[in-house]
Amino acid sequence: MTAEINLDQISKYQQNLNNRKDSKVIERAVTHQGILESSEDFIAEGKMNPVFSIDLSTGKVADQKQSGRCWMFAALNTMRIHLMNTYKVPDDFELSQNYTNFWDKFEKANYFLENVLKTADQPLDSRKVAWLMATPQQDGGQWDMLCALIEKYGIVPKSTMPETFNSSRSAQLNKFLNLKLRHDAVALRELVADKASEAKIAETKDNMMEEVYRMLTYALGEPATKFDFEYRDKDQNYHFDAGITPQEFFKKYVNLNLEDYVSLINSPTDDKPFNKTYTIEMLGNVVNGRPVKHLNLEMSELKKLAIKQLQNDESVWFGSDVGQSSNTKKGIMDTSLYAPDELFDSDLSMSKAERLDYGESLMTHAMVITGVDLVDGQPTKWKVENSWGEKVGTKGYFVMSDDWMNEFVYQFVINKKYLTEEQLDAQKQAPIVLKPWDPMGALA
C-alpha cells in the first residue's frame, strides 16, 4: 500500500502541536541552544564526579590531533605505563605514534592490493569489491592490528620519530594514498583480466609498493632502523642506550608478551552467540600477521575482568561509540546526561543489539580505562584516558558511567591470566568468519 502525505495531515499535525502548551517554549530553546544543550540534565552531570576508588597513575594525556589514530594512541598509552613504572621516564614521555602509523599505512596498502587480487574475478558492483574500494586504507584500526605491527617492526620513542604535519593532520595523505591505491587497483584487475603471468603481477605490485613507501617517507619521515635512547628519569638520573633497534627497544623497555592480551567483545546480537570467537573477512593490515580475533562475552563478565586488571595496576584498552550520550568538552559519558526523548516527547529507545543490527551504533573510538569507582564491590563509574589533549575533560581524562559502559562499550583487551578456565577454552576456538561490513569489524 502506498500512502503519501496530504495537506490535511500536515494541518492536523500543526494544530495538534499548537494545542501543546509547552511547544513554543521548547521550540525557542531548541532553535537557539540545540538539541543536546536543551536536553542536558545538570543533576546527571553532577553525579559524574572524577573521583575513583581505584585510580592508576598514567602521566600526561596525549593528543592525536586531526587524525583517526585513537586505537594506536590508546594502545601505546597502555604500554608506556610499564616504562613509567619500571624506568621512571617523565610523565610526558610518549612512544612514537608516527612510527607505527608509517608501518600501518604501508602494510594496509599491501593488504589492500592483495585483496584486490583475491577479488579480481568479481564484478565491480559486487558488494565485496564495492566495500573494498570505498576505503582502501584509513587511520583507524584494532588492537590485534597494532600487535601485528609491533611484532614485525617493534616500537620507538616519540623523540626518535616525532609527529609530522601529515601524521597530525591526516586528511591530505589519506586522500592521495587512497587515490594511488584505487589507481593501482585498476591496473591489477586489468592484469588479471588479461591473464598476465604471476611473475608480471608480482613485479607490478612490487613497483606499486615502492611508490607507496616513497609517498609515506615524504609525508611521515623515514622510519628508524637503529637509534639512541637517551633520557633523564624522574630522579634526574641520566640514561643512554646506543644503537638499539625498534624490536630490541620493545623487548627491553616495554617487555610485554602481546600473545597474553586478547580481544573480548560484547555483541548481544542473535548472529553472535556468547562464548564463541569471531574474526572478520578482509580485516587486517599485516599479510600473514596476527589476525583479528574476538571472544564474545556478557558485559557483566567483561567488567569483572576489567576490574581484576585494574586492581593489578594494569590499564584496559577499550573500544566504544564515543559520540553517544557524551559531552566531549566536559569529558562525561553517561546515558542519563541528555534526555532528547523527553524533549521531543518521542520514544527513541533501542536495545544494544538493535542499535548494532540497524546501524545506529558501532565502535568509533578507542581509549584507555585507568580507574574505577567501586561501591559495595560494584562499579558505578570509570576513569578514562582519552587522546584528545588536555583541553577536554579533566586534563584529558573522562568519566564514564557504568550504564554507559553497558550500552556503548563493545571491546576490551584483557590479559589472559585474568580469564576463567571456561573463558580460556572458549578463546582457543577457531573463529567464525563474519562479513567485511559486520559492525564488529569497525575501525576505531
UniProtKB/TrEMBL annotation:
It is found in: Cytoplasm. It holds the Pfam family Peptidase_C1_2. SUPFAM superfamilies: Cysteine proteinases (SSF54001). One of its GO terms (molecular function) is cysteine-type aminopeptidase activity. InterPro entries: Papain-like_cys_pep_sf (IPR038765), Pept_cys_AS (IPR000169), Pept_his_AS (IPR025660), Peptidase_C1B (IPR004134). Gene3D superfamilies: Cysteine proteinases. One of its GO terms (biological process) is homocysteine catabolic process. GO terms for cellular component: cytoplasm. The active site is at C70, H365, N386. It comes from the Bacteria. Keywords: Aminopeptidase, Hydrolase, Protease, Thiol protease. Belongs to the peptidase C1 family. PANTHER family: BLEOMYCIN HYDROLASE (PTHR10363). This is Aminopeptidase. It comes from Lentilactobacillus parakefiri.
